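Aim 2, interim progress. The first record below pairs a target sequence with its structure tokens.
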Amino acid sequence: MKQLLKQNIASHIVLSEDETEDFCQLFQQKNIKKKSFLLHAGEICRFEGFVTKGLFRVYHIDKDGFEQILYFATENWWITDIDSFTNEIPSQLFIEALEDSEVLLISKKDKEFAYADLPKIEKLFRVMTQKTHAALQRRMIDNLSKTAEQRYLEFSEKYPLLIQRLSNIQIAAYLGITNVFLSNIRKKITSRK
């Protein structure tokens, strides 16, 4: 299970085998059943997680009761509510398993220990934070400048395997459109082929 985490770390920074092993020992494995929650809105997020198996959705429910999916996390992805985790404030997000899943969790205390004991770990999280920030910026620009059809096509091209694991309702919530509108987009695309 921790092999995937080790590969992920190696894709961002260079650590010795001992450093990698020491860092990975700080994570606790947790199995999450489909439709179970890793985090509920109102709770303080006490973890950063690394998904080793399965699929999660991270979402917010707006004042009208509509789900707004921020992102999906599948194998080899990190997952958290960074605002709640960092600032120790109640989360506005839900993190739900869409499949039976496995995740490795690190607490804030253990992460801070890693920063002090293994200085390269701070670089790891800085690099990952920069990549996440860039991806969120691109997503915001896309939401402001592209049509729903363009966003759907790009999502399906970028994540062809993920799209097969999601329902139309989940994809629509991620794109910020209704399920009916997504169905119309798909019909329109199919009719052009």
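The second target in this work package is listed in the same format:
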Amino acid sequence: MVIKEGLYPDEVTAGAVLSGCTLMGFRGLLEGKSVHRFLAKNGWQLKVQLGTILVDMYAKCGSISSALQMFDLMQGRNVMTWTVLICGMARLGYGTEALSMFETMQKERVRPNEVTFTGIIHACADARLVAAGRRFFEMIEECGLEPRIQHYGFMVDLYGKVGMVEEAYDVTRTMKLKPNVIVWTSFLSACKERRKVEMAERVIEQVLSDVKPENDDGVYSLISYMYALDRNWNDAERVWKLILRDHPP
């Protein structure tokens, strides 16, 4: 962050620069650290808003150790502070640590929000913790919240990763929201991994009506693959033609 003579950033400006670093992912880590050093050198206090942005920046840039250090140094925290750390841990594969952080959050009587539950169910999916994932999914409504499409998507992903394809199908069948491309991709990927052709066939027609190849041809590729597994070459070719129609070579 370049400082011209007589011009110094306020908290809004510093936060905007750090958010820009966050969007850069791993590439933004050095820039983010530079801004953090400037803030520390000039005696800025780590209040909730700016501290949360720093935790988020470090987590999204791949440095969980720095995010934790920042979290511990903060003078105060709110639900978003806990949430960005939990989501960052889940995203980087620290599922067990994310669960431990969520438990500490509950002990401190911080009420989770929808995004917190997205992070913690994501962590369960990556760590393949079925019982924990179910418990946290049930907690969403217990906390007076409504499950979002992301929660359903990660539950389908969790069941798929442990081979519980029937349970994953039940989620797609009973969920209160219309499945989107992420939910269908997770389910069909599980069917492909476990070679559950008959399970995939239960939803193929619905997927073909819900998702168009111009929106996501990855789902169509999965469908074509499942047809090929079943030696249903005509339908496999039909789906590939739909992809090529919208994505000509």
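Residues 114-127 form the longest helix (14 residues). This observation will shape the mutagenesis plan for the next reporting period.
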